[in-house]
Each structure stands twice: as structure tokens, then as C-alpha cells.
Design a protein that fits this description.
The chain has 8 helices and 10 strands. It has about 290 residues and is α/β, with parallel strands linked by helices. It has 2 domains: about 110 residues, Rossmann fold (3-Layer(aba) Sandwich); about 160 residues, L-2-Hydroxyisocaproate Dehydrogenase, Chain A, domain 2, CATH 3.90.110.10. A hairpin with a 6-residue loop joins strand 6 and strand 7. Helix 4 crosses helix 5. The protein binds 1,4-dihydronicotinamide adenine dinucleotide (NAI) and oxaloacetate ion.
């Protein structure tokens, strides 16, 4: 990899010899061009975080245009880069980025990723508290999107079986773990350190896959065929095998319980609306 760019990012320590550049909006347009030219990976965590009482969707009005502008700059200056979207609402900012790239004639669905790694980090951490295991050894599959009920942990696929209130509490905590942090910070923003860890993990996986390592799998919100025809849901997070060309293979959701199917049905309805909102914004404002 020639260059790794964090756009206004504090993504923590990334253990790589790659060249990391950071962009600050106050430094102006020329600096972003200079950062983006030749970039292989562009992380976009720019925009405002939530305050208590807000949903991620409440950030749309501010962050949609910020992401649109950075996506335009990326489409112009590094059209072949991997674009990693962290800015919320991810369920809408990923479709916005896709539309910007489509309009510029450089859209490659294999190179656009919504970063949902933090949902897996939380799902793994919270199950370890029930089971008294090391969270580093847990890897819970999480599918759907990155907001409330669109986040669907598939506990059954890890051989775990919580029941009744314990299951309900677990799912609520995974779906609304971000809200807990926002509440605890009392107006000072949302998750930062855990996001830095999650962003670094996803980026490192992408780098390993780019360098030829096989079998690198991460959950991520991508342009996905899984529910396109059946539900009109054009982007979906599931486990994705990464490779030198970005998305190598999108894994299907696989076998799930009836209860998980219920969660997935709710997810798909909400996700469709979030995606269409992003696309409608892009169609009117790009
Ligand atoms: N996908 C995920 O799992 C997560 C997503 N987030 C999202 O990441 C975003 C950033 O959150 P934080 O880093 O906590 O916020 P922050 O306020 O600490 O940082 C935001 C950064 O965006 C930059 N920025 C603002 N306007 C800009 C513009 N027009 N162009 C370029 N850069 C601009 C600011 O300079 C600042 O450095 C939020 O939307 C938040 O909801 C946060 C945590 C987890
Ligand atoms: O909750 C937020 O607003 C930030 C975020 O996406 C997360 O922590 O998962």
C-alpha cells in the first residue's frame, strides 16, 4: 500500500509500515487533494457525533453533506482507493458515497465499506461477560446495518444460547451500546477509543488481504446482493472475505433461529428506508 489516509481521523495505532496521512478541514482544499492523491485506503470519520437523546439518523442533516463533499474529493483524486465510511448514519452515508462515485463514473462496489466492526466488538465483549470468557477469543456474527434495530447479532451461529430476559437484554445492549456511551458522555460525543480500535482492526484486515493473505473475513456494510431482489435492500452488512481487489466474497447470513429471523425482518424494513434516504439526498444534492 502506498498511502493510508485518515480523514480528520484519530484511528489509534495502526500497525503497518504504510504511509498514514491525516486531513484537517481547517487546512483547506489543497491539503485534502495532497492527502488523497495516491491513497489506497481512505477512512472517513468526519462530521458530528451524537448528543444524548439523538438517534444516528438525527446526524443526517449535518453529516450527509460533509460525507458527500469528502466523497467527491476522493472520487476526483483517488477513484481506485478503498473508501471506509465511519461517519454516521452509516446506513445512509455509504449509499451517499456510492451515488457520488456513480455520478463521477468511478463507482466500484468492491471498494466501498461501511465500518460496522464496532458492533462485532460489542457483541463479542457482551457475550464474554455472560459466559466469563476472554472477549478477544469471541467472534459473534453481526449482520444488517449500523443503527439500533438494524444491528442483528446472530448468537446461534457461535453455538451460544441465551434465553428469555437474558437474550432480550443482550440484544438490546448490542443494538443500543452506542447510545449507552453517548448517554455516559453527557454531551461530549460518542464512542471514540472503541471506534479507534474497531477502525484500526478493519483497516489492518484490509491491508493484510491487499498483501495477499487469504481467508481475511470482516463484517462490513457493502453493496450486497443478499436482499437486493427479495427486499429491495441494496446495502447490507454481513461477513465479507477481503482480498487485493477489496470485496472478494460476500457471505450469506446462513442458518438462523426463528427469533433471529424476526430481528432480521425488522432490520430489513428500517434499512431500506435509511438507504433510500441517502440515495434521495444524493440524487438531489450531488
Ligand atoms: N461507524 C461507527 O461505528 C462509529 C461512527 N462514529 C461516527 O463518526 C463520526 C465522528 O465522530 P467523532 O470522531 O467522535 O467526532 P469528533 O467531533 O471527535 O471528530 C469529527 C471530526 O470531523 C471533522 N470534520 C467536521 N466537519 C468536517 C468537514 N466538513 N470536512 C472534513 N472533516 C470535518 C472535525 O474536524 C473532527 O476532526 C460521527 O458521525 C460519529 O457518529 C463514531 C463512533 C463509531
Ligand atoms: O453511537 C454513536 O453515535 C456512534 C456509533 O456509531 C457507535 O458507537 O456505534
Amino acid at each position: 500500500m502506498d498511502a493510508l489516509l485518515g480523514v480528520a481521523a484519530d484511528v489509534g495505532h495502526i500497525n503497518t509500515k504504510s504511509n498514514v496521512k491525516g486531513y484537517e478541514p481547517s487546512k483547506g482544499e489543497d491539503q485534502i487533494k495532497e492527502c488523497l492523491k495516491g491513497a489506497d485506503i481512505v477512512l472517513i470519520p468526519a462530521g458530528v457525533p451524537r448528543k444524548p437523546g439523538m438517534t444516528r439518523d438525527d446526524l443526517f442533516n449535518t453529516n450527509a453533506s460533509i460525507v458527500r463533499d469528502l466523497a467527491k474529493a476522493a472520487a476526483e483524486n483517488c477513484p481506485d482507493a478503498n473508501i471506509l465510511i465511519i461517519s454516521n448514519p452509516v446506513n445512509s452515508t455509504v449509499p451517499i458515497t456510492a451515488e457520488v462515485f456513480k455520478k463521477a463514473g468511478v463507482y466500484n462496489p468492491k471498494r466501498l465499506f461501511g465500518v460496522t466492526t464496532l458492533d462485532v466488538v460489542r457483541a463479542s465483549r457482551f457475550i464474554s461477560q455472560y459466559k466469563n470468557t476472554d472477549p478477544a477469543n469471541e467472534s459473534i456474527v453481526v449482520v444488517g446495518g449500523h443503527s439500533g434495530e438494524t444491528i442483528v447479532p446472530l448468537l446461534s451461529q457461535s453455538g451460544y444460547n441465551l434465553d428469555g430476559q437474558a437474550l432480550a437484554d443482550y440484544i438490546k445492549r448490542v443494538q443500543f451500546g452506542g447510545d449507552e456511551v453517548v448517554q455516559a458522555k453527557g454531551g461530549a460525543g460518542s464512542a471514540t477509543l472503541s471506534m479507534a480500535m474497531a477502525g484500526a482492526r478493519f483497516t489492518e484486515s484490509l491491508l493484510k488481504a491487499a498483501q495477499g493473505q487469504k481467508g481475511v473475513i470482516e463484517p462490513t456494510f457493502v453493496d450486497s446482493p443478499l436482499y437486493k431482489e427479495s427486499h429491495g435492500v441494496t446495502y447490507f452488512a454481513s461477513n465479507v472475505e477481503l482480498g487485493p481487489n477489496g470485496v472478494e466474497k460476500i457471505h450469506p447470513v446462513g442458518k438462523i433461529t426463528d427469533h433471529e429471523q424476526g430481528l432480521l425482518d425488522t432490520c430489513l424494513k428500517q434499512l431500506k428506508g435509511n438507504i433510500e434516504k441517502g440515495e434521495a439526498f444524493a440524487n438531489q444534492n450531488v
